Amino acid sequence: MSTHELAAQVGVGSVFILWFALICRARPALRQSHQRGLWLTVLAAAVAITLFQPRIVEWLTNAGVDVHTIALARNLIGVLSAGLVLLFMVDSAGARRLRLSMTVGLTATMGALLILDLLQIGHPREVTASVQGPADLATAYWLILVAAHLVGDAVALVVCWSYSLRTEDRDLVWSLRLFAVGSVFAFVFWCGYLWHLYDGVPALLPHLSLIIGVHGFIRAASLLVPTATALVRSWTALRVTWRLWPLWRDLVVAVPHVALARPQRTRLQEVLRPRSPLALQAHRQTIETYDALLDLQQYVQPGAYEEARRHARRAGVRDDRLAAAALAGALGQARRAKLVGAPQSVPRPLPGVAHGSPATLLGIARMWPSMTDALPGHDRPAPAERLTHRE
């Protein structure tokens, strides 16, 4: 595959991922002021990158839009994107006077480009317009265009990276660092574009298209960080709910007062039709499992943990799972004891579950199917025994 073909594919891919990211993040970003500036910045960059792709330009020209209009729109929106980057940084600092200066400078820069294009100093439109070139080949025009981008990207790189070192918000850290990396690619692109315009080296364009395409992917990634974090959390919660369900169901059946809601008929129903958000459901089931475990410690038989551990070792359970298997075996026996109405005794704390760590509970859940009936059950006490116990 040639560089030109690769650049075309990466460019179109970056356009799709940018617009996908913008659509996904539109509602939450526009509702939160600290994310709105980043979203608008990426929106302007997405429009400029879209209008830089030869295939997109070809579709627009076939629809009747001339190349010069496309190039001018791309240039103006690109400068707007660079200006929005600066305004986004200024907003973070909360400097009103600097914000006003940036707004005036952005307006003046875009106005200068528009005026220079209207003047068309010595360059007829039919000659100057090209698919990926500036709207006007006048030196003043493309120097202003490139300088605006270089300043914006340089400031974004320094400010984003330095600010990412001071905040403790993980999502914000990754968003800022990805934005800074994207600014590096944009800076390299505009340096190369300046060289291309100065020396007229057409062989650079495919490489520059590839760089700006990668820049688009990184800009989209910076916007999608909160979405990715939310998906990871949902997946983790789904995994906890799915793996914990058999243990949770059996324990809350034996100790029903610890559960806020009765278990559904199947595990699949529990994850496909949750009665609360997945993260809340996973948290609730973890707490309820641990509370049931504490209650069942009153029914643990003397030596049950050690006996279950020996049984698991004889059964060939791996050494790193022996503790969880022993806990599962002792809990299974205690659960059956409560279900048949065995008398309570002094609680016998099980080793390793003092704080109810989710990892410990998931380890028990992994061994639960094979160890729940590993130890002998507790027979239901006879009526005379129950009477004696009450007395």
Shape: elongated
Per DSSP E runs of 2 or more residues, the count of β-strands stands at 0
Instruction: Tell me roughly what share of residues is in helical segments.
Output: over 70%
Q: Name the average pLDDT.
A: 84
Portion in beta strands: under 5%
Distance N to C terminus: 88 Å
Q: What class would the helix/strand composition place it in? A: mainly alpha
SSE ordering: HHHHHHHHHHHHHHH
For the largest beta-sheet, the strand count, sense and barrel status come to: none
> Which residue ranges are poorly predicted, with pLDDT under 50 across at least 5 consecutive positions?
125-129, 380-391
In DSSP terms (H or I, runs of 4 or more residues), the helix count works out at: 15
Tell me the Rg in angstroms: 32 Å
Could you list some keywords that capture this structure?
about 400 residues; mainly alpha; 15 helices; about 75% helix; about 0% strand; disordered C terminus
